[in-house]
Amino acid sequence: MTAILEVRGLSRQFRSGGLLRPSRLHAVDDVTFALRPGRITALAGESGSGKSTVARLLLRLLTPSSGEVLFAGRNVARDRRRRDVLRYRKHVQMIFQDPFGSLNPAKTVRAHLERPLRIHGIAGRRDAKARVDTLLETVGLVPVASIADKYPHELSGGQRQRVAIARALAANPKVVIADEPISMLDVSIRIGILNLMRDLKELEIAFLYVTHDLASARYVADDILVMYAGQIVEQGPVDEVLANPLHPYTRLLIASVPDGERNLEPIEIRKGTAAAAVDPAPGCRFVDRCPLAIAVCRQTTPELVEAEPGRIARCHVTAPRQREDVHAQPAA
Amino acid sequence: MTLAFSVTPDAPAERVTPVVELENLVVDYVTRTRTIRAVDGVSLSIGAGEIVGLAGESGCGKSTLGNAVMQILRPPAQITSGRVLFGGENVVERRREELRKFRWRNVSMVFQSAMNALNPVMRTGDQFVDMIRAHERVSKHDALERAGDLLELVGIDRRRLRAYPHELSGGMRQRVVIAMALALRPELVIMDEPTTALDVVVQREILQQIRELQTELGFAVLFITHDLSLLLELAHRVAIMYAGEIIEEAPAARLRDEPRHPYTVGLLGSFPPLHGPVERLTGIPGAPPDLAAPPSGCRFHPRCPHCTRDDQALYARQIGERPLLRVIADEHRVACHRVTA
C-alpha cells in the first residue's frame, strides 16, 4: 500500500539561550518516515526526545525549519493560506492525551461531534444526527441515545477519550495522530481504548501512535519509530524491533520496562538523557551512554542505514554503512 | 556512573516481627453534606526489611492509606476507627509533638512530585540540614557533612548540596528526596508513586537503587503504585486495593502465577506483554466505582465476569454481602465469595 503521509528530512529548531550566548535547540532533526492506510505506526521515545514536536509539525501547529511533509504526494509543509491548511487538517486529525482538558465542559457529546461535521462541510443539519449516532457506535459508546446528550463531566475517563476519538473520526480523516491517548486513563480501561484503535484500522486510517509505553506500542502498532534526542534512531516492524533491537538505546529502553515476568535483575545504566540536543556536536548523540561506542561514534553522526530488510537504525556499530543510506533509497 | 550490585530477589526467609500493623483501619473524608469512606477496614502488616507493594487504580484509597500510616491526614480526612500499630504501639492517638518525632525518625515518605517536596528557593544542602536539625542536636557543619554522605549514597556528587532544586534533573530530584527520607534511618519508608512522573530508564535506575539501598540498610518499604508489573518485579509481597478495600494479598511471585480474585486477574490481563504472542486482551469492563456511592455487596460485582444469575444463591451473596478477606493458603488472602481454600 502506498503511503498517504510521507515525511522527508523533517527538522525543527528552536532558539534558546540568551542574547549573548544564542544557541539552537534541535528538537526534531532529519526525521524521515511514511504512514500507510490501515497501519498503526508507533512513535516511541522519552520525554524531550521530540516525539510530540513531530506530532505538532505533522498537524501544522508548528512550521518545520526544513524538510517536507507530503500528503497524498503534495508538500504541505510550506502551506501558508488558511484555506490550504484547513483542507489539510480535515484529513489529519488529532487525539490528545488529556480527555479532561480536550473536551468543552459546557457542550454535550453531540455538540462536540457536530462541530467538525459543520466546519468541514461533511453533513448538513439534517444528516448530522445520523452521522453522530454512527460515530458513537463506531467508538463503542452505546446505547447512543443515553450518551449523546450527556456533558463531559457525566462520563468516565475512558468514555471521554472515546468521545475524543469519535470527534477525530468525524471528518473522515485519512491520518489520525494520537498523542499518549491512554497515559491518563486507569489501567483497567486502557486496553479498551487500545482495542478500539486496533479495530479502527479497518477504516483504512493511517495512525501515528505517539507513546513512551513500548508494551502498548507492541500491542497496537505494526511499525515503530524510536526517537532519541530529536532523531529517529531505529525503525522497523514493531515485533522485530522489540524482539531483536538493533540500536543500543532501543535495547536500554526495552530492558528498562517493568516486567512482572522476571525479578529486578540489575542492568547497566549510564548517565544521560534523551532530551533534544542544543547545538549538537558531530557524532552520535547516544555516545556517552553507549556500551558499544567506538572511536568513530564521537566523530561522525551516524546515518539511518537499512541493516536488514525493513530494519533501519542509526548506529555505526550495529548498523554500519555499507552501500547506501535510506535517504538515497527509501525503505519499502 | 554504572550501577552494579547483587540483589536478593527472594522474600526474607521467615516472617519477621512487623514494623507496622494496620488493624481494621477506616479513613473517612467528612464534609458537611456527606462522608466518603476512602479506606474501609484495611488490615495489613509490613515486616522489618520487607518491600510490600500496594497496587490499585486512581481513587481506590491507596494514597490515603499511605498518608494514614505516616499520620499526615488532614481534614476532611480522618481515621474513624482502627489502629496503626508501630512497634506494637498505636500511633493514631498520639499527640502532635509525639507525632512530629515519629515522622521521619520512624517512618518517612517519598511522594510522586519531588518538585513539590523540595523547597524551590533553598539549596538542597540547607534542606537536609533543616530536616536533620529538627530531629537531632547536631551542629550545622556535621549535618551538612551527613547530607553529603546521603547524596553519595544515592549516587549524586556531594557538591550538589549547593544546587537549587531547579538545577537538578527530575531523576536527581527524586533521588534527593529518597536520600532525605533515609536521613534518620527510619524503619519504614512509604513511597507513593515515586517513579510515575519519570521516564522509563530513569525509573529503572531509581528502582534498582531503592532495591540496593533496601538490601544494604534493611528498612521496610510500602511501595504504592498503579503499575502492577513494576511491583511484581520489585516487591516481596503485593496487596491489591479496590474501592477502599484490600481484595487480595500474596507474595509477588504467587500473585503473578496464581491470582485468585477476578479483579487481580483482570488487572494482570490489562498489561500487554513485552514478549510472547500478542493476544487480544479484554481489560476489565466498566470503570472503577465512585466511593461516594459504592456498589452493594462485593464492590467489584458490577464489573465481575463471574457475577451472573446462573447460581442464584451465589448471586444473592455477591450483590448483597461483602466478602471477607480470608486466608486461602499460606500468606495468601483473598476477598471473594467464589474463592475458598
Helix/strand layout:
The complex is a heterodimer of chains A (332) and B (341).
Chain A: E1 5-17, E2 22-35, E3 40-44, H1 51-58, E4 66-71, E5 74-75, H2 82-91, E6 92-95, H3 109-119, H4 125-138, H5 144-148, H6 157-169, E7 175-179, H7 187-200, E8 206-211, H8 214-220, E9 223-228, E10 231-237, H9 238-243, H10 248-256, E11 277-278, E12 305-308, E13 311-313
Parallel strand pairs in A: 3-8, 3-9, 6-7, 7-8
Antiparallel strand pairs in A: 1-2, 1-4, 2-11, 4-5, 9-10, 10-13, 12-13
Chain B: E1 18-30, E2 35-47, E3 51-55, H1 62-70, E4 77-86, E5 89-90, H2 96-105, E6 107-110, H3 114-117, H4 124-135, H5 140-153, H6 170-182, E7 188-192, H7 200-217, E8 220-225, H8 228-234, E9 237-242, E10 245-251, H9 252-257, H10 262-268, H11 312-320, E11 326-329, E12 332-334
Parallel strand pairs in B: 3-8, 3-9, 6-7, 7-8
Antiparallel strand pairs in B: 1-2, 1-4, 4-5, 9-10, 10-12, 11-12
Helix pairs in contact in B: 4-5, 5-6, 6-7
Overview of the molecule:
- The complex is a heterodimer of chains A (332) and B (341).
- Chain A has helices spanning 51-58, 82-91, 109-119, 125-138, 144-148, 157-169, 187-200, 214-220, 238-243, 248-256, and strands at 5-17, 22-35, 40-44, 66-71, 74-75, 92-95, 175-179, 206-211, 223-228, 231-237, 277-278, 305-308, 311-313.
- Chain A is α/β, with parallel strands linked by helices.
- Chain A has a single domain (5-259, 270-313), classed as Rossmann fold (3-Layer(aba) Sandwich), CATH 3.40.50.300.
- In chain A, the strands form 2 sheets. Chain A has an 8-stranded mixed sheet with strand order 6-7-8-3-9-10-13-12, with helices on both faces.
- In chain A, helix 3 packs across helix 4 and helix 3 (109-119) runs parallel beside helix 6 (157-169).
- With 341 residues, chain B is an alpha/beta fold.
- Among the domains of chain B are: 119-183, no CATH class; 264-273 and 280-334, no CATH class.
- Chain B has 11 helices and 12 strands.
- In chain B, the strands form 2 sheets. An 8-stranded mixed sheet of chain B has the order 6-7-8-3-9-10-12-11, sandwiched between helices. In chain B, strands 2-1-4-5 form a 4-stranded antiparallel sheet, with helices on one face.
- Chain B is globular and about 70 Å long.
- Chain B starts with 17 loop residues before the first strand and ends in a 7-residue tail after the last strand.
- The model of chain B is unreliable at 1-13 (pLDDT under 50).
- Chains A and B meet through helix 6, helix 7, helix 8, helix 9 and helix 10 of A and helix 7, helix 8 and helix 10 of B.
